[in-house]
Each structure stands twice: as C-alpha cells, then as structure tokens.
Amino acid sequence: MVTVTVCVGSSCTVRGSERLAGTLEALIAQEHLADRVELVGAFCMEQCSMGVSVRVGEQVYAGLDPDQAEEFFYEAILPLLGEAS
Ligand code: FES
Known about the structure:
Radius of gyration: 12 Å
CATH topology: Glutaredoxin
Bound molecules: FE2/S2 (inorganic) cluster
Helix content: 40-55%
CATH architecture: 3-Layer(aba) Sandwich
Order of helices and strands: EHHEEEH
C-alpha cells in the first residue's frame, strides 16, 4: 500500500490541491488501485513554494502543477507499486 498525501493547507489549496487530488483519485479508480493506493489530505508540509505539495510514502514533492497530476501519477506513484506489493 502506498500512501499519497496531498497538502490541503491554505497555500496549496489556492494553487489547486483539490483539483490535483481529484485527478489522482480518478486515476486511482481508473487503474483499479483503490486497494493499493491510499489518498489522504494533510495540512501544511512547510514547502509552500510554487505549487502543491504531495508526499508519496516518505518522499515530499513540492511545487506540483495540478495540470501535471496525470504525469505525476504515472511517474512518481505507479512505479512504486511494483515494489510495494
Ligand atoms: S500549504 Fe501546502 S506546503 Fe504549505
């Protein structure tokens, strides 16, 4: 199980964290990964730089663009599932 934590602090919310989380949620459903990827929210990760902060496992990605949520999913989340099963 991989835990993906999307920041819903005020700065990230303004930059589109809800939209990013919605895209990730849709992709998780589309790929039938609801039992392998847990999507949760968290408050400020103290990385309020240029975009949304997301933590995947222990790794924090700061400055994500909600328009690139799909790329992020396939590049940063999906590859982990091979190791996490
Ligand atoms: S509000 Fe998201 S990292 Fe600060």
